[in-house]
Amino acid sequence: MIKVFSAEQFRAWDAHTIQQEPIASLDLMERACRAFTDWFIQVFPGHHKIAVVCGTGNNGGDGIGIARMLHEHGYRMSVFIQKGKTESLDYLANRKRLPVAATELNYPLAPTVFDGYSVIIDALFGTGLSRPLEGNDVLLVNLINQSKAIRVAVDVPSGLLTDRATHGTTVHAHYTATFQAPKLAFLLPGSAHLVGQWTTLDIGLQEDYRKLQDTPYQIPTLKTIRKRVRPRNRFDHKGTFGHALLIAGSTGKAGAAVLAARAALRAGVGLATAHTSESGRVIVQTAVPEAMVTYEAQQDYIATVPALERYDAIGIGPGLGQHASTKNALSQVLENARQPLVLDADALNIMSDHTEMIARVPKGTILTPHPKELERLVGSWKDDFERLEKQKTLALQLQSIVINKGAWSAIALPNGRVYFNPTGNPGMATGGSGDVLTGILTALLAQGYPPEDAALIGCYVHGLAGDLGAREKTEMGLIAGDLPDFLAAAWQRLA
Fold first, then answer.
1. How many angstroms separate the CA atoms of 73 and 41, rounded?
2. Closest Cα partner for 329 from 353, 305, 354, 311?
3. Region class of 246: left (phi > 0), else alpha (psi between -120 and 50), else beta
4. CB-based burial, 454-487: b 16+ in 10 Å, e otherwise
5. CA–CA separation, 255 vs 272, rounded Å?
6. The domain 2-215: what is its CATH number?
7. Number of H helices, E strands in the chain
8. Alpha-carbon distance 286 to 183, whole Å?
9. Per-residue confidence of the chain (495 residues) as pLDDT tens digits?
10. What residues pair up with 315 in beta bridges, in sequence order?
11. Cβ distance 328 to 263 under 8 Å?
12. Looking at the DSSP assignment, which residues form a beta bridge with residue 104?
């Protein structure tokens, strides 16, 4: 797992490394500068004219060190200093090492100050910033953002608050090269346009700190997901891998049942049954011959559910519709199911209209709302950090898992932990992708995976299938029906 630390924890990590290695803080800064420079040379080779804009704190010290190293590699550059109230010792030491003259900015600044530069390296403020920018800092950042140059942030874009919502002026970076580990703000949609394309640079901070320090926020890796996937034994059979029930579809939305059933089968379930409306039974049976089909006597919608005892896991919601009688079907599931549940789409929408049903969600259920569905369940929020807290609270209250779907899908567990899924791409932002996820999750639960493992594996393999599909189909050309076809290749990566 990749741990996502707070700004305070990062400062403590630096201090721990300085003490335990031991290493001088200036030498640790030098190591960070070298890592950034090596990355920069790979991304921006050739003859670029660079403006390095530095504050007078440690982030500015990074910028000064980077400028020196890039100068040694033959890059043309100018160094601009934004005078602050204080100057860190490491900044001052690096300033003395700088082999080129630096320009201290005087106001008012000419609007053309950054004309002619192809890259601006932003080293004004780092993770230590605790307030919105003001005064001349705002004027400077606005000029940086107005420049036609590519903007590259050192560690974090200046003005970005990593642990709480940013409301002030911020550098809009095209690239961010951050040190040692990603910051929480990088994983939230409201900050994505500020961070741009980001990468993590290893600067050799002490590994024992990472291992011992706790944080509620983590990112699964291929290695950690692979460890959770169970090997199959030679004499296993379809009964070993469970029977999944997918309650899905209504008139005009039979495709949701098709996608969920196909995904469940590609996720390794032994048996899959789709329970759908009468209007969709022939469609589902024809499109997914490997699945069994039960159907509602009603032509257009689902009003009842089959006997639940024979199934090992139940997924309900894709394409369900919100007919008044469908509420009764959902109530039957919430009251009578003794097996693991996945609640998606219209199941969640029905619950948000009938809030008394929320308290009846069984412990250990997996809920899969997209942001709008989550808002209907928990109310509105003013920023991503409040949304995250509301999501965590819902998971705690229900003692269930709440997955907020999207880029970096947030998987909130009832113990307060949140995992951010790293796989997936914008090509998956198309109707039916969530139905595929429901099928995968239900299949994993039916195979006996604990809800936490099912959620982490399911989200990861769902996104990985999307990534593999986008390589062949392109993000623009990817559709939800492609995802089950790429699940086999995704499982192969996890073998």
1. 9
2. 305
3. beta
4. bbbbbbbbbbbbbbbbbeebebeebebbbbbebb
5. 16
6. 3.40.50.10260
7. 17, 18
8. 48
9. 999 999 999 999 999 999 999 999 999 999 999 999 999 999 999 878 999 999 999 999 999 999 999 999 999 999 999 999 899 999 999 999 999 999 999 999 999 999 999 999 999 999 999 899 999 999 999 999 999 999 999 999 999 999 999 999 999 999 999 999 999 999 999 999 999 999 999 999 999 999 999 999 999 999 999 999 999 999 999 999 999 999 999 999 999 999 999 999 999 999 999 999 999 999 999 999 999 999 988 789 999 999 999 999 999 999 999 999 999 999 999 999 999 999 999 999 999 999 999 999 999 999 999 999 999 999 999 999 999 999 999 999 999 999 999 999 999 999 999 999 999 999 999 999 999 999 999 999 999 999 999 999 999 999 999 999 999 999 999 999 999 999 999 999 999
10. 246, 342
11. no
12. 81
Structure tokens at 380: 């509105």
Is 81 in contact with 103 (CB distance < 8 Å)? yes
**Contact of 91 with 61, CB cutoff 8 Å:** yes
CB neighbours of residue 56 within 10 Å: 21
Are the C-beta atoms of 78 and 42 separated by less than 8 Å? no
Cα within 13 Å of Cα(289), Cβ side = 1
Selection from 421, 454, 450, 419 nearest residue 440 by Cα: 454
| Separation CA 95–CA 170 (nearest Å) | 25
The Cα-based distances of 43 to 36, 50, 72, 159, 256 in angstroms read: 11, 14, 17, 24, 42
Decide if domain 222-494 falls under CATH 3.40.1190.20: yes
Closest CA to 112 of 143, 84, 88: 143
SS3 sequence, 464-491? Answer: HHHHHHHHHHCCCCCCHHHHHHHHHHHH
d(CA 486, CA 483): 5
Task: Evaluate whether 368 touches 405 at the Cβ level (below 8 Å).
Answer: yes
Four-point Cα dihedral 112, 116, 122, 123, nearest 10: -90
Structure tokens belonging to residue 423: 């796989």
Nearest to 478, CA basis, from 431, 408, 441 = 431
8 with 125: CB under 8 angstroms? no
Please name the residue that has the structure tokens 């420049």: 147
For the chain, domain boundaries: 2-215, 222-494
**How do strand 366-368 and strand 150-154 relate by DSSP bridges?**
unpaired
**Rounded to whole angstroms, how far apart are CA atoms 402 and 394?**
7
Helix (H) or strand (E) holding 122: strand 119-123
- What SS3 state is found at 289? coil
